[in-house]
Design brief:
The chain is an alpha/beta fold. It is about 45% helix and about 20% strand. A seven-stranded mixed beta sheet has the order 3-2-1-4-5-7-6, sandwiched between helices. A hairpin with a 4-residue loop joins β6 and β7.
């Protein structure tokens, strides 16, 4: 039976989902990267490379990756020479990220625990601000985006990668069916927890996806707003620059 927001213990629509989201990522942190590889057939690595290419990180620039998880985007930005901070509020995910950073041995990268809706940085601090699969998990994705805009420098690039809602009805039905049935089954098989991955579709149903994010970017006064659709809109990257 499909898990939905009425039965999924990790999904709490409304103003205070943070505790549930924290429980979710604590439950999956150890197997998070493996399940991402399996559920996307490895494509999430390509999608994240697209984000990094669009970010155009240069040596000496400052970058922030919000909701950094196990650190994929933050590590990639540091490899491009940017002085990078990865921020997340989930300690088990940050421990995995820190272990990966220690292997890279990069002085350009550090991870911090913090709230994406109250970023602990001054205004106009970063040349690049990214978020991968994070806005959708916040109590207010709009507040998270406002905070990204606040800490970006004038001319800074903002990028958000997340699940999308395909326009084609047939493809959307197949895609949502995949998220409803296969992905939770994979979560049960790999980490013994179907609800943690049924959460993806539950949260997506309450998220405006690429067009809603693009509209909010324009409302915030961001410029050069554009959308990159991936896999027929199943994934998307929102891009904008701070004027």
């Amino acid at each position: 039976m499909a898990t939905n927001f009425r039965t999924n213990k990790f999904f709490a629509p409304g103003a205070h989902p943070a505790e549930k989201v924290n429980q979710l990522f604590t439950a999956v942190a150890r197997r998070y990267d493996l399940i991402n590889d399996l559920q996307s057939l490895g494509l999430h690595r390509y999608w994240k490379r697209r984000v990094i290419d669009l970010a155009r990180a240069q040596p000496g620039e400052r970058a922030l990756d919000v909701c950094c998880g196990t650190g994929d985007l933050a590590l990639a930005l540091a490899r491009r020479g940017a002085q990078t901070i990865g921020l997340d509020f989930n300690e088990p995910m940050l421990r995995v990220a820190e272990a990966r950073r220690s292997k890279l041995k990069s002085p350009l990268l550090r991870f911090v625990r913090g709230d994406a809706q109250q970023l602990p940085f001054p205004q106009d601090s970063f040349d690049i601000v990214t978020v991968g699969y994070g806005l959708r998990n916040l109590a207010s994705w709009e507040t998270g985006l406002c905070e990204m805009q606040r800490v970006a420098k004038p001319g800074g690039r903002l990028l958000a990668l997340d699940f999308g809602k395909p326009d084609n009805r047939l493809w959307r039905g197949l895609y949502f069916g995949y998220l409803r049935l296969f992905v939770p089954a994979l979560g049960r098989l790999i980490c013994g927890n179907a609800g943690a991955y049924a959460y993806i579709l539950d949260s997506l149903e309450h998220y405006p996806a690429r067009r809603g994010v693009a509209t909010k970017m324009r409302e915030l006064g961001l410029v050069n707003v554009r959308i990159t659709n991936l896999v027929g809109g199943a994934m998307s990257i929102n891009y904008a620059e701070k004027d």
